[in-house]
Structure prediction request, 295 residues.
Amino acid sequence: MTSDLFRFAAPQAFFPLAGKLIPWFSVLAGVLALAGLYVAFFVAPTDHQQGEAYRIIFIHVPAAWMSMFLYVVMACWAGLGLALNTRLSGMMASAIAPTGAMFTFVALWSGALWGRPTWGAYWVWDARLTSELVLLFLYLGFIALKGAIPDPARADRAGAILALVGVVNVPIIYFSVQWWNTLHQGASVSLTRAPSMAAAMLAGMLLMALAAWMYSMATAFCRVRSIILERERDAEWVRMTKEQMQAAA
Amino acid sequence: MTWGSLGDFLAMGGYGFYVWGSYGVTVLCIVLEILSLKTTRGRSKA
Prediction:
């Protein structure tokens, strides 16, 4: 079992596996997003305080969760690559970064559009908002740093150090609402308490979060396949694979 | 059902700009990411 798992640490073995998984994750993402949007707009009731503006939650919270979760996953891959010198790890970290940056931007953007009607401002230098903005810069810095170093092995090591140092920001984002007096509200969903919202709102949010998760897997696997083909282009199996792909297209 | 008409749905109780601004930009980001993945994949095949 373990040897089977480790077999997929080789780019050559992972490439076809990722290719087989992408359609499944894509379909799941689509179905979950449609179900989530249906609940978000047609099942979840109007909020008695915020009216319809609260419906931004179904975008905002899943995006914010994914932005932090993907950063941790990216840092884990990067750290694994640094420790074990496995080729696939650095490629996975690179593959996750753009999707993570996208979700961070969406969380900030939807947060700004939610802040205006509820707080009266698109942006405030609040601990939660500022640390989430730092997260966006960490993603962009990671992408820029790796892009600036031509040697992939060196780029992976440098990127890994940046990713690992930056991981300290994730608990800061998460706990910022407890540690500081923030305008941003506290967690509505936690593992220890009953959620402070209607069941339909929670269901919609969880469906959207699962959709975002499936979407991230699909895009990361799709991107890692391009990275594998690019980096291993001198390998015999890549030449053969490319010929097969061209024949199929 | 919360919405009486399509106009109601689009108005989002007066918060249409904020709600649709959030959803719209999210969809745009997803579409752009998928398009960029498609072009990279096309390039690496050739």
Observations:
- Chain B has a mean pLDDT of 88.
- The first helix of chain B runs from residue 6 to 11.
